[in-house]
Input
Amino acid sequence: MKNVKAAAAHDRYLFDSGTDLGGAQLNYLSALLDGTTRSVLGSLTLAERPRCLEIGAGNGSVARMLAEEFSGQVMAVDLDVDHLEPSPGVEVDRYDIRDGVPAGPYDLIHTRFVLVHLPSRREIFARLIDALSPGGWLVIADMGFAGELLTAPEESDHQLWRKYYHAASRIVGPAAGHDYGWAEQVEREMYAAGLIDIAAEHLVPLARGGGPWTRYHSNLSLQAEEAFLSAGLSRAELTRFRAMLADPRFRARFFTVTYTVGQKPPR
Ligand SMILES: C[S@@+](CC[C@H](N)C(=O)[O-])C[C@H]1O[C@@H](n2cnc3c(N)ncnc32)[C@H](O)[C@@H]1O
Output
C-alpha cells in the first residue's frame, strides 16, 4: 500500500487519490452517487454527440457514463490520473483545474465533489461558464455540512462524534479553504451568471452503521488518519470511531449533496 499524503495546506487537495485508500474512496463515491448523476444527466437535453469536460474525474465512472450512455466525446481531467484510464470516447489528461480550463467549448461540463475543496472555486466557476458553448450545460454536484448523529451504540460515542467533527472541521473546514455553503449557493451563482433552466436537487443521505456511506466515511478517516492524529484524536479514538461506524445501531447524517444544473442560453 502506498503512503497516504494528508495535509491541510491551503488550496491543496487533502485526499491523495493515487493511494489504495484514495482508490477505494473514489469507488465508494461512484457506487453511492453515479445513480443520481445518471438521472440528473438524463434530465438534460444534450447536443447529439456532446463535447464533454469531466473535472476531477476520479476513477472515470462518470466520464465512461457520458461516453457510453450519452454518446459524449469526453475530456476527463484530474490532478491524479492513477485510477483513470482512457476508454472509447474518453480522453484523459492530468490537469490542475486551478490553472484554467482545457480548450473548449463544451456542450456539457460536469464536476462532482471538487469545487467545495478549492478556495478559488468562484474564479474556476467563471471560467467554466466562459467555456460552455451556446446551449451547453453546467452540472455541479457538491457536498454541504450535516454533522448530525442520530443514534449511537454507546452513550460515550456522542462525545467521540463531537470530537471527531471538531477535528474534521479543522482539517477540511473553512480554515483549510473548504466551503460547505458553496453547494447551496451554486444555483444563485448560475442565475447571476445568466444561465437558464436552472434546477437543483438536494439530498441528505442517511449513513447507517455498516452501510455504504459509513464504509466511505470509515475509509476517509483512514485516508486522513495522520491529519486526525495531528488535530488531537488518538489512534484508540479513531479505532473506536470506525467500530461505531460498523455497528448497525449507528445512524447519522454526515453531509448533504446538492446537484445543480444550468444551461447557457442558445444563440
Ligand atoms: C472527492 S474526489 C471526487 C471524484 C469524482 N469526481 C467523484 O465524484 O467520484 C475529488 C477529485 O478531484 C480531484 N482534484 C482535486 N483537486 C483538483 C484540481 N485542482 N484539478 C483537478 N482535479 C482535482 C482529485 O484528485 C479527486 O480525484
Observations:
- Confidence is low (pLDDT under 50) at residues 1-12.
- Residues 78 and 94 are 5 Å apart (CA to CA).
- The helical segments are 20-42, 61-69, 121-131, 156-171, 182-192, 212-223, 225-230, 235-246.
- The beta strands are 51-55, 73-78, 90-94, 106-112, 132-151, 196-203, 207-208, 251-263.
